Q: What sequence folds into this?
């Protein structure tokens, strides 16, 4: 089992599948009223340099449901890397808490936290990856009974942090992957190389309709990620053709599912009709952040499922 969860490549096919099974078990136990407390007396620090709804709430609630406690720290409040070196924050926190989850701007920050912490570190989104999101997303598809190794997932829009995590986890699971993006916004070359090294099937195109054709899943995310607000105008212009709307969804399989990590910018990367339509599973994804992260926390902190 991995020591930290910084990116999808910290998983293997087997550990990802184990995580799905554990998440399903935890979800079921909670739904039938099991209220065991395997994390009793344990504390996880949550560091956020950027805003969040889903990640913050699902970490806090997940830790509480497992009987532990979460301490929320805004990056501004602790002066991560300004008031105090990132390495020193990691060393200090390790003396008090049993795990650290962090949402950061630079991926290097989470790597530095992990290098100097003696407790597990979880990436709650960096500019490079969002592995908890991808884990919850593939858990959602697995739970619905999709054959992950036989399906085609089309990513439309920005080859961003969420895209990176989805591609690498998809490659581990044998999913056929296609990304449609404007020139200059493809997933980073290093991620594409990692996908190929893992034996992944990845096609990159600038044609959104072509990508959507025959897709089992259409996935999109915002065109302007947190921290890119100054690039708003050129990005809106570059991405216009990549909107997930009813015409694009109609090009996919009739059974295709539509995914979005949220928050959505309605009317930009996705229309209301699609986001709120019958093929959208965005709220299942959001719910499953809770169950998937409980599985990650329990695995990394070493809690016993029998105590749940
Ligand atoms: N999907 C996701 O991570 O949402 P938040 O930014 O609200 O945490
Ligand atoms: N790509 C988005 C994801 C938000 C969950 C961002 O980084 O802002």
A:
């Amino acid at each position: 089992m991995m020591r930290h969860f910084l990116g999808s490549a910290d998983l293997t096919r087997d550990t990802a599948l184990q995580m799905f099974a554990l998440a399903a078990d935890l979800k079921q136990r909670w739904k039938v009223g099991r209220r065991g407390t395997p994390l009793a007396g344990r504390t996880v620090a949550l560091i956020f340099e950027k805003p969040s709804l889903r990640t913050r709430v699902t970490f806090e609630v997940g830790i509480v449901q497992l009987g532990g406690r979460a301490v929320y720290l805004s990056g501004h409040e602790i002066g991560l890397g300004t008031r105090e070196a990132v390495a020193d924050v990691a060393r200090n926190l390790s003396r008090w808490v049993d795990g650290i989850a962090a949402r950061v701007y630079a991926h290097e920050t989470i790597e530095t936290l992990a290098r100097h912490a003696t407790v597990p570190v979880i990436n709650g989104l960096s500019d490079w990856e969002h592995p908890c999101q991808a884990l919850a997303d593939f858990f959602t598809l697995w739970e619905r009974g999709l054959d992950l190794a036989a399906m085609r997932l089309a990513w439309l829009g920005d080859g961003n942090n969420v895209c990176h995590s989805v591609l690498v986890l998809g490659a581990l699971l044998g999913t056929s992957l296609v990304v449609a993006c404007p020139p200059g916004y493809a997933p980073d070359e290093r991620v594409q190389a990692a996908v190929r090294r893992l034996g992944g099937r990845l096609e990159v195109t600038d044609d959104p309709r072509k990508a959507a054709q025959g897709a089992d899943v259409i996935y999109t995310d915002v065109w302007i990620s947190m921290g890119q607000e100054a690039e708003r105008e050129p990005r809106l212009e570059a991405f216009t053709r990549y909107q997930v709307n009813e015409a694009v969804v109609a090009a996919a399989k009739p059974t295709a599912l539509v995914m979005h990590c949220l928050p959505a910018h309605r009317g930009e990367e996705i229309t209301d009709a699609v986001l709120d339509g019958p093929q959208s599973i965005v709220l299942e994804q959001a719910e499953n952040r809770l169950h998937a992260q409980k599985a990650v926390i329990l695995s990394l902190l070493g809690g016993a499922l029998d105590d749940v």
Summary: The chain has a mean pLDDT of 97. Residues 8-130+289-307 form a domain with the Rossmann fold fold (CATH 3.40.50.1370). Residues 282-301 form the longest helix (20 residues).
